[in-house]
Prior knowledge:
With about 350 residues, the protein is of the alpha/beta class.
Amino acid sequence: MNDRPSLEDIRRAPKVLLHDHLDGGLRTETIVDLARDGGYGDLPTTDAGNLRTWFTEASNSGSLERYLETFSHTVGVMQSAEALTRVAYECAEDLAGDGVIYAEVRYAPEQHLAGGLSLEQVVEAVLEGFRQGRRDHGIRVGTLVTAMRHQARSMEIAELAVRYRDAGVVGFDIAGAEAGYPPTRHLDAFEYLQRENAHFTIHAGEGFGLPSIWQAIQWCGADRLGHGVRIIDDITEDGDGAPKLGRLAAYVRDKRIPLEMCPTSNIQTGAAKSIAEHPIGLLRRLGFRVTVNTDNRLMSGTTPTEEFAKLAGTFGYTWDDLQWFTVNAMKSAFIDFAERLELINEVIKPAYAELRGER
């Protein structure tokens, strides 16, 4: 049995990605091209290699707010339909090349209107890029439209998600700095989505603690939690040193609420100190529905393969563990049950069996 995953073997393994930001995964060569063609003159450097280094270094501050500042440059060059389609296509191409068979990629349409596009034109441009990516590379990408939690357009974006849900938009999200902007500020949007039988996730428990998670679930009805790292604050030890779950942590585990964890990004934003100390290790042992994600591949200098490799190297994970994470993600995707089941039984499980040397 080949049970010690190497980086190249992990790259060949089928992977499922649920938390990846479109404006956080651009190629730096593309940023330079789009800045030149679109007249965006604020880049710190126009050398693609140096720009990649700048993004990585600027993202390692340990502050979520500072981390989010890096997006001014990627969003700045994504203000035309052509740019959005190109970025979406290259995202699909890059993920497919890394072994991803299904991905949900999110972006905030309201951030791409400076060039005169409408919300609908933004959505259609992104969907076109992912359609081309599926045609050329075979990867299915569902999009999540995101509302910014410090703005007041969440109902408008929620309606956009419902309007395009049969065209490739699979769900809704809110993102941005958590502190001072609780999810309950957007309660009307979440209630609308529930009435429309629509899926949504909420960034919660990354830059803020348990109250953010509690509100996202119990007030807003989130299907999944974006990050959810701070659920660890509701897990203590009993007198014998065994983990003891508080009421909220037990509820999250019992209800099988998916946690969209992004280990490298969580360290950069200060939500975790290191891979070894990341809550994902304990949460996996306790049987929470944990998934492994990239968040922002450019800012974090990472890929789905590298996230898995870091976890395998740190926690000694085997193919069984990596399959468990992958199946968790596929079960938690916002596409129909039959398609999820088909990918699990006909693609994921056979491929991992082969990687284990079972066939």
